[in-house]
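Q: Start with the shorter request: fold the first protein.
A: Done. Sequence, then structure:
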Amino acid sequence: MSISRRQVLVGGGLGVLGGAALLVPTRSIDAKSISRLAPGDMPRPFQTALTQAPILQPDSTGIDPVDGAPVRYFTLTEMAATAAILPRLKTPILGYNGMFPGPTISLDQGTKAVLRVRNQLPAVHPFDGHPLTTSTHLHGSASLPQYDGYASDITSPGFRKDYRYPNAQPARTLWYHDHGVHYTALNVYSGLVGQYHLHDPLERALLPQGRYDVALSISDAIFAANGTLSYTDDSHSGLWGDVILVNGRPWPVMKVQKRIYRFRILNCCISRSLRPSLSTGDPVTFVGVDGGLLPLSQTVGSWRHSSAERYEILVDFRKYSTGQRIVLRNLSNPNNVDYDYTNRIMAFDVTDEPVDVSDPTWNTIPAQLATNNPVMALSPSEARKVRKFRVKRDDVTNMWNINGETWQDVISSGYKRVIADPGLGDVEIWEFENSSGGWFHPLHIHLIDFKILSRNGRPPFAYEKGPKDVVYIGEGETVRLLMKFGPHKGRYMLHCHNLPHEDHDMMVQFRVGPEDNFDPNDPITAAPATWDG
């Protein structure tokens, strides 16, 4: 078919992440492919096995002298490496401990973590020469501002920073990723992502554990002819790759027993949204969202899944025949760019491996889960204020903004400018209107979980009826969110998680509590990076 194309330079073949010149189709037009790989190098669906990232082991353990809580000490090193993604070629990446995705961190609620992140990356990124400074964000954690991955709190190559995580929240799927100012998209796309699992007694009792608790980190990519990643953000609009990766493998296959499995699905594409469904037409059961377990499980046939959202689902393989293949499809959503094989994600092959029936979760789908979650117990009548926000694009500058404000405005103010100033413990309603025609926006609010009240005046989707920290705002949609601010005071970010939008420049900040002359938790100065000598 005939499509309009434009020339975009992506990388110069330099350093660890070489690239190539690439012709890029305009947005919202289906095309066969975009990668420049030779036919024998282009991966095809269902030719490789699903793998799991290793669990990161602590360097040491200890006790917090203040409250007596257990502490685990970990180290992650950001470094350049290569990954075996393609059939015959190696792909240079940036990875935590040299892996993509990075190792999974798994902890129990109440066990604190100190995560030392060492920046051992090259001095500059070869795509565009930007300095490879980083800022690590544990997405979903109620961290103090100086440990939250504040975009301008950067760690330079050769330096390190210790991040402290309280892990006091209920069980949930979190993830850690780079949040470096203005280059988050490139750094995340290059591989700086990993999952982080927080457990509690309720979740352990109700849901599958161990090998039946499966992390799925979904991303997409474009490849140059030599196997390196190619990058374009289409005038700051977004990147949509033609190769779907799950845990760093193209369209993998997982062998499953005839039992119930739990899948922690993270969309870590930097722009693409997904609409997953099973090829059998059978529904799945939603048990968890960004902020933890749902109050009640929800049966869903397909769902919109934007960048940075995490959904935990149960899939019942008991009904299928030995040897049967079930495909996790991608039905896509408006305002994506789709290719030949982006309509599928991965596959499951049913085996006759014996099932351990002594594990009660093998055939149990709980109806009730976290029925006393405080976020879901909030009532609109508790709100002290209603704030309205509009997300849109400036067609002259190609820059994105929230209520006309950008991160550059924050920088220019000496990091003082805020778009909202709720008090500690305040309950508020925030309303977001998407007036940028032709786009969807996954909005992320740091620090807190929220309850979705409505979408265009209607109830939220069934799978959204739990505590969230990212909300999908489709074209022409207005969503209302209810939230309580805490447990910390200080400055936190609000931004679009289509990462090219965030970088150009759809990010602002809010402040919880009054402005102090001296802020002991200043996100840039309170816990600076130190030389990693």
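Q: Next, the second protein, separately.
A: Sequence, then structure:
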Amino acid sequence: MHITHEWYEQGDLTIGAIVSHILYVFPSISFHQHPSHDFIDNPVVIRKFYQHILALVFAVDEINGNPKILPNATLGFHIYDSCFDSRMTYQNTLDLLFKSLHFVPNYICGNQKKIVGVIGGLSSDTSSSMADVLGIYKIPQISYGSFEPAINDHIKFASFYRMVPNEDLQYKGIIQLLLHFRWKWVGLMTPANEAGDQFLQTIEPMLFKNGICSAFTERTENSLHFSGNIFDIVDQSKLFSQNFMKSKANAVVIYGESTSIIWLTGVIIPKIMIRLILQQFAGKEPEWKVWITAAQIDFISNQIFSKVIDINIQMLQGAISITIHSKEIQDFSNFLQDVKPSGQDEDGFIKHFWEQSFGCSLSNATVMAGIMGTCTGEELLENLPTPYFEMSMTGHSYNIYNAVYALAHALHIRCSSEAICKRTIDGNRLFLQNVEPWQLHSFLHRISFNNSAGDEITLNEHGELAGGFDITNLITFPNTSYVRVKVGKLDPQAPPGKELTINGDRIQWHRAFTQVPPLSLCNANCLPGYEKKKKEGKKFCCYACDPCPHGMFSNETAMVLGIFIKHRNTAIVKANNRSLTYILLISLLLCFLCSLMFIGMPNKATCPLRQTAFGIVFSVALSSILAKTISVVLAFMATKPDSTIRKWVGKKLAYSIVLSCSVIQVGICAFWLATSAPFPDVDMHSSSEEIIFLCNEGSVLMFYGVLGYMGFLAIISFTVAFLARKLPDSFNEAKFITFSMLVFCSVWFSFIPTYLSTRGKYMVAVEIFSILASSAGLLGCIFSPKCYIIVVRPELNNREQLIRRKM
């Protein structure tokens, strides 16, 4: 069986291409009659993908008109179709290399132009099938849409390049997108193939690690070929489980090739619409979905499900997509407006595209002409709805455009390096020496150039595009068209965990959502006064909210800082360095909050931060207490006549003490993080019945170094406060600081043996208790007497009373 759609244009140097545009009917062979009897020449055109072909032609024409690139040679091209089938991909790739009537591999006619590089394919299957053939002959292949992980093996696929970034960045983007909108209960939809397996194996551990649960996982046989007289895609609707229909997950991640969207809009969305209608009739609130699509997916349609998709495209309103980065190329839209079927005899794709796009026939002699009418040939592509054809350059077309330029730049460097492309005296082009395809690899491996849109196009050491992704929002219109608005990006150069930047204000959600952004949770968050309780047999994102035990919950906030700010101009607040008091109160507040970092699943963010943050914050608190105590002593000594200490009294000394003492602890923690930072780990020895997730401290010596420095500051503060405890009350709070330091030291001295004698999760509990107890001791001993006077005995909170007490 030989099926071909091709477009050939002659040139001094020829670029090959395998695109995915036409879908043929491939019936199963029954062996009861000759296979050719079952074949029906009725191709299905994925109309939007015709732009991929035009993008390649546009790029070649643009290069041939540019005197700065290959000035002494012209580029030609030869485009074939993969027909979305591996068998056709193998056949057409060989036919591209060894064009002959009898299809003889390794045989090249004398006048046949050698292919110097091939662009393709769109999908992982197409790209890998092409690579099997092209790799043998070391011909450069640049894929414009494949993320196939197996082709990352540059020993086996040394000739393979791709104009898409590494897919790991997309996985990170999906996770960060879900975390950004706090979607913790999400659905996953993938094809039932190797790429879908790889996606699930990669994304599910990442979801678990970030506290996100998969509500359901739908695996679909995403076949678009005929089986008898009915599309297999219809049969696949039987596999659509009730989990999807009943799930509360409002966020659904769709992974797969572009044809996945046909399955979604042709089968899944009609089921959803029926359910929504039934819910409305039953008086229930309809459950809408937020669709999150991967970069491989484009919003496409074909004539089989066109009427269904015209209706259901509205359901995709508000979809958020990780898309291949693209920019508008100057003059490309004008180029598309000039595309007509007349005068395009070399274009073997346009006939079926034009007829299926405009519902007419280009030939008066066909049956279709009598049914649908004859095409005028003056129809305009810009009048086609967006799901069928776009006038702006899509991400895949942008990749093809850049791939053509990458090959052209590599050829230009090759021609310039040895001056093998020259003109004869009479001006005719002459190719003095053949350019072998394998010679281009050394140039492609380090290719870097700026395209006409201003983007820097660079391939990294793995042959992948060194770039990022766009985040787009789908906005639909009643006329079945849509626009994709860029609302963010994924930047691989950003710090880890910060790759995603998104402008939520630009997103237009589905009109039916009453809350934006919508929620996607297994159950609502627990209200104050309730605690989470695990549901047996359910995922950790699903929990019950039980009332907290009596006496274990308070709905009142810690208001000491507020009291001191409100009464900041009173005598007792101003008596002993008001600024130091604020610093101490803020640091104590952070000390209480530090305990929250010890709760929950250990991860790469909390493990390094929780011990270092705890050490630094407590050091600031202890430094503030030490500064307050020293200030009390110096203030009393400065009252003596002719005292030389008076020049030391003031805020500068206090701030210097806080800063210098805190900086030392910061240095210790920074050295700890730089040399042996804490990291997430598991303990399989403390308990024989369970595996405990915990934070490995990295360096135990550094951990006790942090505690030791805190102990040093506490002992110094206690000593100074103890010696100053008998100074007049109006000048000092040393008595209360002495008590607070006594409590603090007692807690942490008892912490060390207790901590060393416990194992597993109880070690964390001991540390949390020590943090809360010592923080409460400092807060209570130092500030309770002052709060008592401010709130209960305000008549004592004046300068006269303080002086009288001193006398």
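Q: Describe the second briefly.
A: The two ends are 112 Å apart (CA to CA). The CA atoms of residues 509 and 515 lie 9 Å apart.
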